[in-house]
């Protein structure tokens, strides 16, 4: 009940089949999906092995049913809190298994960025991998320059974690200014990338930039947010993708979405009794 109330808006459901059904519906509207199995910060190998097995099943199912979908994983779901070598090995294994499907690496809290980028660089030669960079992080310009030069495929977001002022811009204006700056860098220097934001103003700026640059841009949204705008863009012939999470570990994901909405945190805390 609680799950349906809070998570149902953003999450496809608990099972692989839920994410597939959601994808089939979105594909019919000309929208790709980016499927993510919920879970992060795993400290036990059992949980990591479960995630690996679930992704393997998901990949098989997407291929078998011809679903237009990418996959997105988190490095801490693949074992970073256990060891960097273990998580990297798991990620490389999934990147090989996923081929020819496209595998994204989500970006998590700032203490994981070096390891996430390190793993990504090892898979770059495979050609079917992309990585998320966060505009709120002060380091993202340097990371973007380095990765774009190496042929990396970037998904640009504002950033969803609570970060210290030493590493991240704290106010909306500064984050937006950096997002726009990084977006312009992508238009100038990258061939193919994803602009992942619900900020219509920013999407409109990107659409305008692409009139001159003619890049392969995908506009991506989270499941349950800006649905009609996403459909309108797809109808206009833009590449559009929706990030579709599924699974039972929905709490962390739902809390990040509530924080963005700027309300309901107190309700959630009281409902969860924390
Ligand atoms: C496809 C995709 C993948 C992502 N992957 C990552 C990732 O790997 N790592 C990471 O740190 N972050 C990721 N994010 C989340 C991102 O960092 C932001 O936290 C999130 O998108 C909210 O910021 P915004 O760009 O939409 O802009 P904001 O300035 O926060 O929002 C712009 C407007 O969009 C609407 N809006 C925004 N959020 C919500 C919401 N939750 N509910 C309802 N309306 C809303 C509001 O009208 C708001 O005024 C991803 C986002 C997308 C779309």
Question: How would you describe the overall organization of this protein?
Answer:
The protein is α/β, with parallel strands linked by helices. It has a single domain, classed as TIM Barrel (Alpha-Beta Barrel). It has helices at residues 2-6, 16-28, 45-65, 84-98, 113-123, 140-149, 172-189, 200-213, 227-235, 251-261, 265-272; strands spanning 32-37, 69-73, 103-105, 129-134, 153-157, 192-196, 216-222, 239-246. Strands 1-2-3-4-5-6-7-8 form an eight-stranded parallel beta barrel, surrounded by eight helices. Strand 3, helix 5 (113-123) and strand 4 (129-134) form a beta-alpha-beta unit. Helix 3 packs parallel to helix 4 (84-98), helix 4 (84-98) crosses helix 5 and helix 6 (140-149) packs parallel to helix 7. It starts with a helix and ends with a helix. It binds flavin-adenine dinucleotide. Flavin-adenine dinucleotide binds at residues 106-107, 132, 134, 157-161, 196-199, 220-222, 225, 243, 257, 260-261.
Distance between the amino and carboxyl termini: 18 Å
Mean pLDDT comes to 93
Q: Flag low-confidence runs.
A: none
Radius of gyration (Å): 18 Å
What molecules are bound to this protein? flavin-adenine dinucleotide
Count of individual domains: 1
Q: What proportion of the residues is helical, as a percent range?
A: 40-55%
What CATH architecture label applies? Alpha-Beta Barrel
CATH class: Alpha Beta
Number of helices: 11
Record field, number of beta strands: 8
Listing every helix as H and every strand as E from the N terminus to the C terminus, the arrangement reads: HHEHEHEHEHEHEHEHEHH
Structural class: alpha/beta
Strand content bin: 15-25%
CATH fold naming? TIM Barrel
Shape descriptor reads globular
Q: How would you write the strand order of the largest sheet?
A: 1-2-3-4-5-6-7-8
Largest sheet: 8 strands, parallel, barrel
């Amino acid at each position: 009940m609680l799950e349906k109330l809070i998570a149902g808006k953003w999450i496809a459901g608990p099972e692989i089949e839920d994410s597939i059904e959601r994808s089939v519906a979105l594909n019919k509207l000309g929208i790709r999906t980016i499927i993510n199995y919920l879970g992060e910060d795993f400290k036990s190998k059992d949980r990591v092995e479960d995630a690996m097995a679930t992704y393997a099943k998901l990949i098989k199912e997407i291929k078998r049913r011809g679903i237009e979908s990418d996959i997105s994983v988190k490095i801490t779901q693949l074992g970073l809190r256990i060891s960097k070598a273990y998580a990297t090995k798991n990620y490389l294994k999934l990147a090989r298994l996923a081929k020819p499907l496209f595998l994204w690496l989500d970006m998590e809290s700032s203490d994981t960025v070096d390891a996430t980028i390190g793993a990504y660089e090892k898979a770059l030669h495979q050609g079917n991998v992309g990585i998320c960079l966060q505009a709120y992080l002060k380091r993202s310009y340097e990371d973007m320059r380095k990765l774009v030069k190496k042929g990396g495929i970037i998904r640009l977001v504002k950033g969803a974690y609570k970060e210290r002022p030493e590493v991240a811009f704290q106010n909306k204006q500064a984050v937006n200014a950096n997002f726009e700056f990084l977006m312009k860098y992508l238009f100038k220097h990258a061939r193919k990338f994803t602009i992942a934001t619900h900020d219509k103003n920013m999407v409109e700026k990107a659409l305008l930039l692409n009139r001159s640059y003619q890049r392969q841009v995908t506009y991506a949204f989270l499941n349950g947010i800006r649905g009609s705008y996403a459909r309108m863009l797809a109808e206009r012939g833009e590449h559009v993708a929706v990030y579709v999470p599924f699974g039972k570990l929905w709490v962390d994901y739902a809390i990040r979405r509530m924080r963005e909405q700027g309300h309901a945190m107190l309700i959630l805390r009281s409902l969860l009794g924390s």
